[in-house]
Amino acid sequence: MESAAIISAKHILFIIGIILLTGSLSGILAQKLKLPDVVVFLLVGMVLGPEVAGVFDVKADSTINQLILIFGSSYILFDGGASLRLKVLKEVWITILIISTIGVLITTAITGFAATYLLGIPLITALLLGSTVASTDPATLVPVFKQVRIKDRVAQTVMSESAFNDAMGAIVTFTVMGVALGTGKGFSLGDATFGLISNAAVGVVIGGILGYLAAALIAHEKYDFLQEYAPLVTLMAVLGAYMTAENFHSSGFMAVFVFGIMLGNKDIFGFAMEHREEEKLEDFILTTALIMRMFIFILLGSQVNFALMGKYLWGGCALVAVFMLIARPVTVFCCALPDRRACWSLNELLFMCWTRETGVIPGALAGILLGMKVPGAEIIASVTFITILLTIIIQATTTRWLAGKLGLLVDS
């Protein structure tokens, strides 16, 4: 007779196998339909979940779910950081910095206050919802810009913002969550601001140090004795950066993101890998990030509460309209227009207003809030799913058309 541990292990293996199988087929389908794979993963998860087919039922607060969300989010942030090219900062770094930090706060505030009116929820819960959906999605935007060739500095700015504001969005979300859970004697704007800055700063330092060490161990002219094990180094370093930062009570998400920046731009520090090893590392990161997207979105889709989503469907759709048509344009114009160095044209600003898909990190944050049973987490998760679906389906599929209308397409 099999023990409970063996039965549990077989059940987990079954879930992993199903996710990998359906995820692979979903990825192929997404390519055929020319859609971002995350939206297909999410829809497939809804079908496989207990409320439809009932193939598996992974609770939001289970250990395996939290493990996948935390590590998956960290690895996707690392991948986003590694795709960022510091050369872009020479011309547009002011816009990227402001829109990725202050811009997240503006989006959080506008979305949060709108949510209190449209959804009838407490302000602190509404702000938590606003911070959860405030960041954009490199996992969606990077593939879109590989398929649709946009004017280089616009594409690089949007992708750089999406990579950087994920970490900021996570920090703001956990800061607001601390207030929502009542940790501490009360809310203080000064204390919250100091906590946010210190959490980010310590995360940047830890990620920078570990990123430099990892780059040296796999690409230094003399000390690259781990070059052949570069993929394993990235796994160990992502885990190490996240856990080290968390142990110092700072942002693990910021640490892994900065770690990715350091590794992705190692050539600036004089480090260079052999071409074969570089390709092997890039393939590993690409494949691992894809697997993380599969697991996160299929699991999140399987946890959708259709009754609750239906209850907040129209309010959620109205909030997404405010989010896309008011919050985002206000954010872009307030953060990018003052950047005289970049000299953005109106068409470029309009394109950035429209291109801001929500995806992996907001979805993962919603799952973490569900797992921690934060007050209002089910409402936040439901509206987050609505936001992910609408922004990806509407915005990602119209990117080429809008870029053509605005004269931003680049001939192949």
Please give a structural write-up.
- This protein has 412 residues and is mainly alpha-helical.
- It has one domain: Na+/H+ antiporter like fold (Up-down Bundle), CATH 1.20.1530.
- The mean pLDDT is 84.
**Tally of helical segments:** 17
- Count of β-strands: 0
Radius of gyration: 21 Å
What characteristic shape results from the CA principal axes? Answer: globular
CATH topology term: Na+/H+ antiporter like fold
> N-to-C SSE series?
HHHHHHHHHHHHHHHHH
Can you summarize this structure?
The chain has 412 residues and is an all-alpha fold. The protein has helices at 4-33, 37-48, 63-82, 89-119, 123-132, 138-147, 152-180, 189-219, 230-247, 252-264, 275-302, 306-311, 313-336, 346-354, 360-371, 377-395, 399-405. It is globular and about 55 Å long.
Give the arrangement of secondary structure elements:
Blueprint: H1 4-33, H2 37-48, H3 63-82, H4 89-119, H5 123-132, H6 138-147, H7 152-180, H8 189-219, H9 230-247, H10 252-264, H11 275-302, H12 306-311, H13 313-336, H14 346-354, H15 360-371, H16 377-395, H17 399-405
Helix pairs in contact: 1-2, 1-11, 2-11, 3-9, 3-10, 3-11, 3-15, 4-5, 4-7, 4-13, 5-7, 5-16, 6-7, 7-8, 7-15, 8-9, 8-10, 9-10, 11-15, 13-14, 13-16, 15-16
